[in-house]
Amino acid sequence: MTTSTPVVRPSSVSTLASSGRFGGAVGPAVGFSALLALSGPAAGEAYADSLCATDDRDREVCLPVPAGRIAALSPGATELVYAAGAGDQVVAVVDFSDYPPQAQAVPSLGSHTRIDMERLVALRPTLVIGWVTGNPSEQLEMLEALGLPVFYLEPRSFEGVASAIERLGRLAGTADAADREARRFRDGMIELRERYAGRAPVRVFYQVWDEPLMTVNDAHLIGSVLTACGGVNVFGDLERLVPRIGDESVLDADPEAILAGGMGEESREWLTHWEQYTNLTAVAEGNLFFVPPSLIQRPTPRLLEGSRLFCEKLEAARARR
After folding, report:
1. Number of domains the chain is built from
2. Which residue intervals define the domain Fe/B12 periplasmic-binding in the entry (predicted)?
């Protein structure tokens, strides 16, 4: 077997995104060292412009033909590939790739932080979608050394989400479907921002995790959602994207509303922790709001649904004044 070699080269164009079942059989087991030999390049490939895209590490990735076998190495990457209309081409995911539901039937390669490399190579992907800060760099670099095309993603803005869908559509040969979904997401976010523009500000604390207690700053994508809804992030000025704080910091900031996800899609225990602080404005006003984490903590089109929910919660806080 030989596989077509992708072209991967640095790009001078900065990407906008930068600013946790097995299916069919994959053939007999093959030793990892043998798989290295099976992945040799084929020279003289031609690349159409439509099959080139710049990833979120500012590298241009080009394919000789549309990617027909895609491995998505994070739950967010899985969602983005399906959003781009290429779900039928996904041959591997990682744990917690639970959306859309059909993704749960795709073979899982283990954790996004510990990928089963032998099984991955045996699946013969023609495109691997890596997460910039989510996957072990040494494993992705090894895949590239084998001649497998690795396309890095990690959207950090609304436009970055839409752009990621479009870029995946180009590489997968599903550009029409991808462009429609990107346009739906863009239009939805524009409408949301316009609807809540000029609303009275609400001072908000968003809780990412409980131990250690973590939040986001204004540069984080979730911080952008808060701003779009007319919220003022009480920790927006902190330097780190995901700062660690303590209860005392929240008490000092005295937010009018607290929004939190949890360890599951229906787990509200993080909010009950704050009920002990009866003098906290968010508690006194009854503004402790739960948001399913997958709707807001994955940079995918479902962020639009999560943003609408965020805005509704802040509107409820305004109504209680």
Report:
1. 2
2. 69-321
